[in-house]
Amino acid sequence: MPQLVDQYQRKFEYLRLSITDVCNFKCTYCLPDGYHRQHKKAFLTLPEIRHLVAGFATMGTQKVRITGGEPSLRRDLCDILETVKTTPGIAKVAMTTNGYRMARDVADWRRSGLDAINVSMDSLDAKMFHQITGENLLHKVMSGIDAAFDAGFEQVKVNTVLMKGLNSHELGAFLAWIKPRNIQLRFIELMQTGDNPALFHAHHVSGATIMAQLLEQGWIEKVRQPTDGPARVFCHPDYQGEIGLIMPYESHFCDSCNRLRVSALGRLHLCLFGEQGSELRPLLQHSHQQPELQQALLTALATKGPSHHLAQGDVGGTQHLASVGG
Ligand code: SAM
Ligand code: SF4
Fold it and tell me: Is the residue at 41 inside a domain?
């Protein structure tokens, strides 16, 4: 079976699958006015997800990340996790969540097959957390992180969108927080989308400013493995935790791209900042459609460009990341 490799010899062993675009938070950079439904279509069903993941797995996909919107708002989340985890060829199931349901449900997610978890937390300051996410729930996310360790996750990854004037001064506090904890804190540079240009121009700051401070304080960049994605990871002998930097505006960021995305409505997105995506849903209705699905993936992949055009201010068709599954 042909593998998911593009004309630039990038191998796509990682699928990011959005299972809903609904969200209960109002992050300023993503859904500042909250979620408003813009379509009447139902999200991918469990059988559609099963057929989709099975098709990807036959072509070399080994890792699936469940995302959204907020994936934990789906009532059948545990069934989805179990379905993905038991698909032959899938070695790792990860999920990105805003942490809202984590304290309550993370043990069930783990029992259903979740191997790795990323939780978004943009500030250690409760007021700033509220300001950025629209919800006064830092305490809830914090107890969710504790619950994840209690449930047996050895490491928790925390996503923090770096924003000048909002949380960029919190590096010291974040470092103190991860010193005794096996947390990989990942600073993600704020990305421009169709909906957020004013916020982007006011608050974008390069992750290089964090990198300079880390290097000055004795942090060391870990050697990247060929299967690693675009995050650059730093460690320090005195710290249990690690720092990751995701800097999509760096040149060559896309050289290490290893992921494809499918939206909650079943559209294949070759890039977070690509165009409308190609429709896969009609090919997910029966298991015997697998050859057609495989051919559709190969045809689409042949058109994947070498990189996005974010640095030129071109955000493709992406209004906000909740629609594509960030
Ligand atoms: N709702 C879940 C959450 O927030 O973790 C999963 C979906 S969310 C779209 C995935 C990740 O994308 C989150 O870590 C979020 O902070 C990040 N994100 C969303 N919009 C972004 C933007 N404009 N720039 C950088 N990161 C963004
Ligand atoms: Fe919701 Fe995640 Fe977007 Fe925040 S970043 S509004 S939690 S989808």
Answer: yes
Q: So what's the pLDDT on residue 320?
A: 85
Residues 69, 325: contact at Cβ < 8 Å? yes
DSSP string, 171-219: HHHHHHHHTTS-EEEEEEE----TT-HHHHHHH---THHHHHHHHHTT-
Whether 201 maps to a domain, the answer reads no
* Total number of domains constituting the chain: 1
- Mind listing the pLDDT tens digit for each residue in 199-237? 999 999 999 999 999 999 999 999 987 767 788 999 999
- Pocket residue to mutate for ligand 1, from 23, 27, 30, 109, most atoms within 8 A of Cβ: 30
- Residue 165 forms part of a structural domain: no
**How large is the C-alpha radius of gyration of the chain?**
19
Mean pLDDT for 31-41 is 90
CB 70 within 8 A of CB 98: yes
Write out residues with Cβ below 6 Å of ligand 2.
23, 25, 27, 30-31, 68-70, 98, 120, 322
Tell me if 161 is assigned to some domain.
no
Q: In this structure, which residue's CA is closest to atom 3 in ligand 2?
A: 30
The 10s digit of each residue's pLDDT in 59-99 is 999 999 999 999 999 999 999 999 999 999 999 999 999 99
- Cα of 289 from ligand 2 centre, angstroms: 34
CB of 97 within 6 A of ligand 1: the answer is yes
| Mean pLDDT over the full length of the chain | 93
* d(CA 286, ligand 1 centre) in Å: 32
Residues in the chain: 326
Range of the domain at 46: 14-156+253-323
User: Which atom of ligand 2 is the closest one to the Cα of 26?
Assistant: 6
Question: What's the CATH number where 82 sits?
Answer: 3.20.20.70
